[in-house]
Amino acid sequence: MISQLYRKRWRVETLFQVVTQIFDCEIKTLGYPRAALFSFCMALVAYNLFSCLKTILSSVHGTDKIEGKLSYYYLADDLEGTYRGMMIALPPELWEDFGQMSLTQLSALLQDWARQVNLSAFTSAPRKPKKKKPKPTYDPQHPHVSTARLLAKKNKSRASPPSK
Fold it and tell me: What Å distances lie between residue 92 and 15, 87, 159, CA to CA?
């Protein structure tokens, strides 16, 4: 029971990480509490839509290709650019048809579109192990001289009187 609760906790933690980092729910310039709350709520709505998109892609391409491999950042970036273009190119009347569709029709349409998605454009890069830096080799031709030693030598030469 404890492990199940802990797993649910991490789902919530992941949600807040995505909402904060990808959807910018904490906009620094929003000094009004209502504006900040509205921004946070819109980020939650965006996350909910992304979860639906992830589910649709999983139903078509398989869960193993989506879970842990789909980058919210790349997906959000692509959708943001595409959305701007679609809102310019397509009149609002065309969008009204989607509101009239049944849930079955809409899900079938979304699955058809999901089949055309090139997942390789939205996969996150796997973290690679860090490479160890090679230890620098000592070169007697170019020995290291500390800055403190150089300053001490310079100060010593200033302090001694000039020789005749």
Answer: 31, 8, 83
**The pair of three-digit structure tokens given for residue 121, joined into one six-digit string:** 């454009």
DSSP 129: P
Can you tell me which residue has the tokens 């899900």? 107
- The pTM assigned to this predicted structure is 0.59
**Structural domain count, the chain:** 1
Asked if residue 84 belongs to a domain, the reply is: yes
Answer yes or no: are the C-beta atoms of 112 and 57 closer than 8 Å: no
Does residue 145 form part of some domain?
no
Give a yes or no: residue 158 inside a domain: no
Let me know if residue 112 belongs to a domain: yes
Phi-psi region of 68 (alpha: psi -120 to 50; beta: other; left: phi over 0): left
Q: Which tens digits make up the pLDDT trace of 76-108?
A: 888 878 888 888 888 888 888 888 899 999 889
Of 98, 117, 96, 95, the residue nearest 106 (C-alpha): 98
Question: 114-124: b or e for each residue (b if 16 or more CB lie within 10 Å)?
Answer: beebeeeebee
